[in-house]
Amino acid sequence: MKIYCWEGYNQKKYLRKFNQKIVSKSFISDFQIANKIKKKLVKCDVLNINNAFIRDFLWKHDLIQELNYLKYNSMYEDYITIFNHLSRWTKNKDQNKIIGIAQRFGSFNFVINSKLISKNSAELNGYHLVKDNKNKYGILLFEDFNIMHISLAAGINPFKKLNKQEFINFQLLCAFWLNNAKVISSNYLTLNKKLNRKDIRFYLSGGAYTCSPARKEGFHNLMGITPKNKINNLKQGIIFTEITSIFKNKNINQSENFLDYILQPEKCYEIAMSKFTCNPVLQMGNKEIFSKFSKNDLKTIQWDDILNTRKYSHEYQIIPDYKKLLSLFKNELNKNKNKVI
Question: Which of the following CATH numbers is that of domain 2-105+240-310: 3.30.450.40, 3.20.20.80, 3.40.50.2300, 3.40.190.10?
Answer without folding.
Answer: 3.40.190.10
